[in-house]
UniProtKB/TrEMBL annotation:
Protein name: Nucleoside triphosphate pyrophosphatase
Cofactor(s) listed: a divalent metal cation
Function in brief: Nucleoside triphosphate pyrophosphatase. May have a dual role in cell division arrest and in preventing the incorporation of modified nucleotides into cellular nucleic acids.
Active site: D70 (proton acceptor)
GO molecular-function terms, A-Z: nucleoside triphosphate diphosphatase activity
Family: Belongs to the Maf family.
GO cellular component terms, A-Z: cytoplasm
Amino acid sequence: MSRRLVLASQSPARLALLRQAGLAPEVVVSGVDESAVTAPRVPELVALLATAKARAVAEQTDDALVLGADSLLEFRGEPLGKPADAAEARLRWLRMGGRCGTLHTGQAVLDVRDGGIAARDVAVSSTVVHFATPTPEELEAYLGSGEPLHVAGAFTLDGLGAPFVRRVEGDPSGVVGLSLPLLRTQLARLGVRLTDLWVR
């Protein structure tokens, strides 16, 4: 039986991934203050952030599957979200070029029924990303595009940043912002088949 699906994220990339997978989620922005959430390890942090976002939106609905997600790049033990400005993005790329980091995406699926959370599943997708080394001219062109300022780790795998990623070890969709294989597993653990959510 089909359920209403709500995405607790304003990320265009996450929405596009879900639509490509045959789903048509409603989008409700959580408004969570991410700076107020802390954890000792990056995977724990993205799981907590995803849960906080999903819970904030779940409180606004009576019956739905609410999906929250958050991504951070772990580089040399440091969590990297969206850079504050082009100067910070430039410094990151000067450090990351020719090296690798791990992109963690936390995903929380809350099954809301009768105004309460009946069940939940929280998991993390972790993918190793191997970066190329852009030339100075390429880096300035990429920074000038504005794209790296709007994404965790200052890079994309589904946009202008793709040529600067040599390879990934793990799930590419998790790097884009939402692991679709993991989502399928999470839904199954809640007794929901992803294919039942397809828009027909």
